Every structure is written in structure tokens, then in C-alpha cells.
Predict the 3D structure of the following.
Amino acid sequence: MEFRVERGVLAEAVGWAARALPARTPVPVLGGLLLTATAGRLGVSGFDFETAARVEADAEVAADGEVLVLGRRLLDICKVLPDGPVSCVLEGTRFTVEAGGTRFGLSTLPREEYPALPTPPEVYGTVDAGAFAAAVGQVAVAAGRDDTLPVLTGIQLRLAGDAMTLAACDRYRYAVRRLEWKPEAGTADGEVEALLPARRLLDVARSLARCGDVRIGLDATAGGGLVGFEGGGMRSVVRQLDGRLPAYGSLFDTAGAAVAEVGCGELREAVRRVAVVAEANSPVRLDFSGGPGAGSVLLRAGYGDDVASQRLPASLSGADEATVAFNPAYLLDALNSFEAPGLRLELLGAGQRALLEAVPEGGAGDEEAVGSHRHLLMSVRQLV
């Protein structure tokens, strides 16, 4: 095996595939990256049984072959190689990397012990890469981090017609984001769902964000099915989680709620300021008052002499006043996930649900944006 490739190309390929390397593993070969050189192409693959990543790039291949080397060691080498062409040669069990007079020798791992990479499922449709990455980021903040409840650590991907819906929930908040996508011919009338690990999906989506379009392949088999993501010569396959998230239809029904509107950026900065005095698990309280176009919201946090407050312009309809309080970290996560200038809050009261939704620049009449991103938070019962 022998090939020659530009340092930047090699570093990018190794960096992409290394995303699939496990942090720790009792199986040494899973810490390796598989390099495959053939017919003017270099493939780099990583696999940890839950996620597989593969990228291909152009290379001058003098001799075809495969080699399995320690992935993080190769990644460290790529970071310090001088710019220019890199020559790589496999001689027996020694893999040599040379560039600009700098030479590294790497021992190899047993290729025969490396598991077979999963076959990507058939392409189901295509979505804009940037929009997909943004949408995944918006819902991922609501995914749980408790591995003893694996279902709640996932993002549910639902494909129905030309709509993709992403959802995540950790029992205290529930985020839903809808966006357009293009199904392949013959799949537009179908409806499929998959629950994917949130952290892995977020990493894949972000790394493909500049690829233009992402092709999504889906094996709808529940429990162990695969979902594939491909774009720009890069491909990842992620194994689904067992189960599904609880339905959110009734949770998002806030009939009879007071409705407030406030500037999203202004509220975000105010929460960040007053939360400085909030102790652990201490809420930030929001008091809405006044009518449409003439009201305000008073933010307060802290106890005793250590307190902070700020008043912002806001509107309120459906009630003369409304008071809610939130975990400041959860509230900031929600506010940071919105991109629109305005925010609409449907408030059921202290200790009950509050539904946050963007108010786009075109106003509530902008049907394309309204309802595409919603975030449900539980208001705490204890008020400041």
C-alpha cells in the first residue's frame, strides 16, 4: 500500500472519521482508523458499533491496500505535519507518514479483528445541510443526559411527506422543530420515525453543515435499525435507540393560556444578567402585566439582599397579569435556540406548562415560520 495526498486533505479526512472513535473501549481495534487506498481514492473509516463514519478523498495511489492504525495518534500526527504533499507507505506491519522532511512511523493494528462496517441504508430523501444542522441544534438542548433513561437522550426524527420533524424531551422540557425536506420518489406518501442519540446526531449534523445537501437513508426497523447521512464525500451511519419519545400533542395544547410577546434577544440578555445572583436551583421569575402593546415584564432573581431585577417592554393578552418562574439554565437554553427577533409565550401559570414559539419578522401572519419551532418548559411552583 502506497499513496500520496495533500496534508490538508488528509487532516480533514482523518478528523472527520475520528469522530466515530470511542473515548474508551475494551476492544483495542475500535480505537483504529481504517485507511483504504484504491484507484485514485483514499477512504478513511471509523466505527464503534453505534456510529460508523467514512470519508473519501482524491489521492495519488501507487499501490492499493488497507491498513488499520491508531486513530488518535494519526490525528495528532496530521495536526503537526508541515503543509504540502504527504507520502504514506505500508511496509510489513509498519506504516510510514512523511512530509517536508518530517517522518513518522506507526505500528499497525490487526485488520482481521476489525468489525465489518455497516452497509448504509437506502436513501430516503434530501435536506438542506445548513437548515438541518440548525434544526438539530435547536432541539438537542432539550435532550436528556441521563444514560439510565436512554430513550430521553435521543432526538426523534419523523419523516412524513415533504416535512421533517425533530423532537427531544428530558421530562422538564420538550423541543420540536419542523423543516422541509425532499423525499425520494415513491417515499412521499410514507411516514417513518427513528430515535437517534442526540449527541451523535448533533455531531453528524454540524460536521455536514457546509455540504449543501444531506442525503438521509433510513432503515425503519425498530430497535437496531440504521440511519445514514451522506454529503460532500462524507458518510455516517448511526444506530437507532430502542423506543420512542412520549407524544407531545396534548402537552402542547395550551387552551386558555395567557399570551405574552417580548423581544427574544432582549429577554435572553436580561435573563443572563439577573441569573448572576441566582443560587443553584434558584429560579428566575417573570411578572407580565399590561395590555397588548403597552405592557411589560419584570424579571427577578435571588433572595434577601442578593437580588437582581430588570424590566422589559412586553405585551400580554388573555389576562391582566401572569407570573411564571423557570430554571435559568433551562430558560437560557430555550432562548438561545430561537433565531427570530420576537418570542411568543403561552402561559398557564406557576408550576404549569409554558409554550415558547418564535414570532418571525413578518409577524404572526408569516405562516411558513409560525409553529416551525416550539419549546415547552415547565414553570416551577416556587416563586422568587
Notes: The longest helix spans residues 129-140. The chain has three domains: 2-113, 123-239, 258-378. The two ends are 68 Å apart (CA to CA). The first strand starts at residue 2 and ends at 6.
